[in-house]
Amino acid sequence: MGARHGNDVIEKLKTQPIELWHRGQRVADVTAEPGLSGGVRSLAELYDLQWRAPEAMLFASPDTGNLVGRSFMVPRTLDELQSVGTMMLRWARHTFGMMGRTPDYLNRALAAFAGSADFLGQLDPRFADNARRCHAHARENDLCLTHTLINPQSNRNAGPARQADPFLAARVKAETDAGLVIQGARMLATLPISDEIMVFPSTLLKATEEDAPYAFGFAISNATPGLKFLCRETVDYGRSVYDHPLGSRFEELDAVVIFDEVFVPWERVFLYRDVAACNQAYAATGAVAHMSHQVVCKNIAKTEFILGLVSLMISAIGIEGFQHIHEKTAEIWCTLEAMKAFKRAAEVDAAPNAYGVMTPAWDPLDAARNMYPRLYPRLVEIVQQVGASGLVSMPTLADVRGPLKDDIAHYYQAARAEARDRIPLFRLAWDTAVSAFGSRQVLYERFYFGDPVRMAGALFHGHDRQPYMDMVREFLQRGIASAAEAEEGSGQ
Ligand SMILES: Cc1cc2nc3c(=O)[nH]c(=O)nc-3n(C[C@H](O)[C@H](O)[C@H](O)COP(=O)(O)OP(=O)(O)OC[C@H]3O[C@@H](n4cnc5c(N)ncnc54)[C@H](O)[C@@H]3O)c2cc1C
Fold it and tell me: Is residue 75 one of the residues assigned to a domain?
């Protein structure tokens, strides 16, 4: 089949019987559901976009020769890796990075698992075959995946086996010749409006027998019987793109995933029971680096958007003369340049991993993933500081067209914008920094790649600071030596 168009995506979602619950009701058709359909449309647009620039967005499948999505590529050269980065940045720019989990995010994970499948094969040769087959299946059918890693937030002071019920967190209930039966829940899965779900090993398990039933990795169809997606309430207010420019387009949704005796055939399993392997899998296969490569592209697109938005606001209301406005704009600019530099460094310093997969350099991506959870909330704060009351005083389209339209045209004019241009601009700023959509984006960025506290801990323990300590120690030693020499000299 090869790369899909938007219509293919919509048709598949229409017919796939996913058990998706929203506001107390099972959703019959996600493509028509108020509050959900805008996100589906944007998702479909991404698939159309890949056909508008096929040379950049697609490549010839190594198996079939069909044109397939470039984010499924297992790169072997620097050029191939960079071409994936270019493709991902194009997709990210289409949604201004506001749909963080566009399909390329998990396509990169799947490609990494397949490319480094021999790591999985050390546990069981079937697991390596399964990862390669699942990747080829997703690539040839251009499937869209979501994923879920985290156990329910019940008692973080205890592991999954020590919760009030050991089946709160999804765990293996039975193992048969045909596969695994999973019972319990995981939170969260963003973009449940997708075809398949990767259920990755949950974050660091303890190497004990009691944690082994929680140690697994597999990918299954979202329409698998017993699999339920319980969505949070939509942040798309169901309004026009004029009133709600981001929320009406880019609602990707988040859902808690409930496994009610879900059967997972062995052919779909990548990892099982080996806690150490589950804990190492992202790093050993390079999946974490390839996913972070997508993340830094998203960060660039999002920061470019904020820079453009804030610059237009500054110009519209004539505040470009104030010094603190320069400082704030410089802050956004520096964030953007830092993200671009991290992407570039990760690509230029990429190297083949143990399995020959060209893998982006981890250090700059680790820096990016640790910094952005702090930087994005600050960028939104700047939008609020620059926009001030303008963020909450903008009329809706109904007002603009209503009985007060002449008043609105008069009183909403700005230094360099008529009311008709200024209102949509500040509504966009409101949707970025004030609306439910905007707040969810801030929360999302805070936790996008995990808990920032524990990510910082991983950075603390995972990077070699010895050369820098040696450098400073050597400098101190020189000072001590020269003081001793001076003392000796004065004593003579
Ligand atoms: C909008 C959004 C979308 C998401 N989408 C997805 C998705 O698609 N797929 C997915 O798998 N996950 C997703 N997540 C989940 C995300 O990975 C988690 O939010 C993140 O890993 C933090 O885990 P938690 O939310 O369970 O927080 P918790 O672990 O419950 O943490 C709560 C608080 O306790 C602190 N804390 C807890 N344990 C420790 C500890 N051991 N040491 C120090 N401090 C601790 C944390 O720092 C935090 O302040 C999403 C989250 C959000 C907010």
Answer: yes
Which residues make Cβ contacts (< 8 Å) with residue 320, sequence separation at least 6? 314
Average predicted confidence (pLDDT) for the chain: 96
Residue nearest to atom 21 of ligand 1 (CA): 450
Q: Please tell me the residue having the least CA distance from ligand 1 atom 27.
A: 451
Residues 175 and 130 in one domain: yes
Same domain, 372 and 227: no
Q: Is the domain of 187 the same as that of 290?
A: no
Q: Which residue has the tokens 């524990």?
A: 454
Together in a domain, 140 and 273: yes
Q: How many Å apart are CA 7 and CA 87, to the nearest integer?
A: 21
Nearest to 161 by CA among 214, 201, 217, 203: 214
Whether 491 maps to a domain, the answer reads no
**Ligand 1 atom 37 nearest Cα:** 156
> Could you tell me if residue 400 is inside a domain?
yes
| Residues 316, 1: Cα–Cα separation, whole Å | 48
Residue 456's pLDDT is 95
User: Using CB atoms within 10 A of its CB, is residue 462 exposed (0-12), middle (13-18) or buried (19+)?
Assistant: exposed
- Which of 284, 308, 323 is the endpoint of a domain? 284
- Going from the Cα of 203 to the center of ligand 1, the distance in angstroms, rounded, reads 10
Q: How many domains does the chain have?
A: 2
Going by C-beta distance under 8 Å and a sequence separation of 6 or more, which residues neighbour residue 292? Answer: 346, 360, 362, 365, 366, 368, 369, 449
Kind plus residue range of the DSSP H or E element containing 171: strand 171-175
Tell me the C-alpha distance between 18 and 30, whole Å.
9
Tell whether 477 is covered by a domain.
no
pLDDT in tens, 87-136: 999 999 999 999 999 999 999 999 999 999 999 999 899 999 999 999 99
pTM over 0.85: yes
Atom number of ligand 1 nearest to Cα 150: 11
295, 258: one domain: no
**How many C-beta atoms surround the C-beta of residue 265 within 10 A?**
14
Radius of gyration of the chain (CA): 25
Could you tell me the residue range of the domain that residue 125 belongs to? 6-284
**DSSP code at position 465:** -
What does DSSP say about strands 196-199 and 145-148: parallel, antiparallel, or unpaired?
parallel
Do 297 and 190 fall within a single domain? no
With a 6 Å cutoff on the Cβ, whether 333 touches ligand 1 is no
